């Protein structure tokens, strides 16, 4: 008895093409086509750009032989933003326009869709002029995550769920300390307010992404407690103290974002300060 086989069926195309009926371009047309092809710039992948940058960093006046032990940029912070735009597509387009000069590693839509726009090891342009602790070039040490949100509305649950999954992956992969998950307003208090008052910082901190205070143990600080030093030790740039206080209260107090530290605010600040010092 014959055995059934799974061999593919091969079909041949018997359609004949008449050479006489085929329109061939003239020499002049062919020359124009070649010139147009040469004018189209080559499309470079991210890997191509990295290789180009690595070659550009080689000292041409020195002998060259490659070592085999090295690292590339390793992110040590995550900075969270809201887009202040109207859709994830608008934000993606913004990051692809030449004149905007801004980008981020990830964009997360309201429906939880995650779009990666840069390799984690590359330096994106998301932080701008900023400072955290002694670091004045946050772009070089951080990953930027943009949440599709106009800044005047609560964040969608699907969006926060996707963010938590992404943060867990990044924290594990790069061994990012829990204290190093911060917001754009933290590092640029005079310019930015994102990710807005609606962002659930406590919920993130409960999962190990960021710092929160112990609401059940808000002891009064000692008389010698220095609020300015506490803000500075946490990481805030206190050059503009008013902006630093507002950024601190926007994140941890929420219900009052004035520039004055109340007794309750000082208790919260002292509790947080003890986590760092």
Automatic annotation (TrEMBL):
Gene3D superfamilies: Peptidoglycan recognition protein-like
Keyword Cell wall biogenesis/degradation included in the entry's annotation: yes
Enzyme class: hydrolase
InterPro entries: Amidase/PGRP_sf (IPR036505), Amidase_domain (IPR002502), NAMLAA_amidase_2 (IPR051206)
Enzyme Commission number(s): 3.5.1.28
Keywords: Cell wall biogenesis/degradation, Hydrolase
Catalytic activity: Hydrolyzes the link between N-acetylmuramoyl residues and L-amino acid residues in certain cell-wall glycopeptides
Taxonomy, superkingdom: Bacteria
Domain N-acetylmuramoyl-L-alanine amidase: 63-196
Pfam families membership: Amidase_2
Protein's name according to its UniProt entry: N-acetylmuramoyl-L-alanine amidase
Organism: Sphingobacterium griseoflavum
């Amino acid at each position: 008895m014959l055995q059934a086989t799974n061999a593919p069926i091969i079909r041949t195309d018997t359609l004949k093409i008449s050479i006489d009926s085929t329109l061939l371009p003239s020499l002049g047309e062919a020359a124009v086509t070649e010139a147009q092809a040469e004018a189209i710039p080559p499309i470079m992948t991210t890997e191509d750009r990295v290789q180009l940058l690595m070659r550009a960093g080689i000292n041409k006046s020195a002998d060259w032989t490659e070592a085999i032990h090295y690292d590339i940029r390793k992110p040590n912070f995550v900075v969270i933003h809201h887009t202040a735009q109207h859709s994830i597509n608008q934000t993606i387009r913004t990051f692809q326009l030449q004149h905007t000069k801004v980008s981020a590693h990830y964009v997360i839509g309201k429906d939880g869709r995650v779009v990666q726009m840069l390799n984690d090891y590359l330096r994106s342009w998301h932080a701008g002029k900023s400072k955290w602790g002694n670091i004045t070039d946050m772009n070089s040490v951080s990953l930027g995550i943009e949440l599709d949100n106009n800044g005047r509305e609560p964040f969608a649950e699907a969006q926060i769920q996707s963010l938590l999954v992404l943060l867990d992956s990044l924290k594990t992969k790069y061994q990012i300390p829990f204290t190093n998950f911060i917001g754009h307003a933290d590092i640029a208090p005079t310019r930015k307010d994102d990710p807005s008052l609606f962002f659930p910082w406590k919920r993130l901190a409960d999962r190990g992404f960021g710092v929160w205070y112990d609401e059940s143990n808000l002891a009064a600080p000692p008389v010698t407690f220095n609020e300015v030093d506490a803000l500075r030790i946490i990481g805030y740039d206190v050059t503009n103290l008013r902006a630093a206080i507002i950024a601190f209260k926007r994140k941890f107090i929420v219900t009052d974002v004035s520039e004055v530290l109340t007794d309750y605010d000082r208790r919260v600040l002292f509790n947080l300060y003890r986590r760092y010092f």
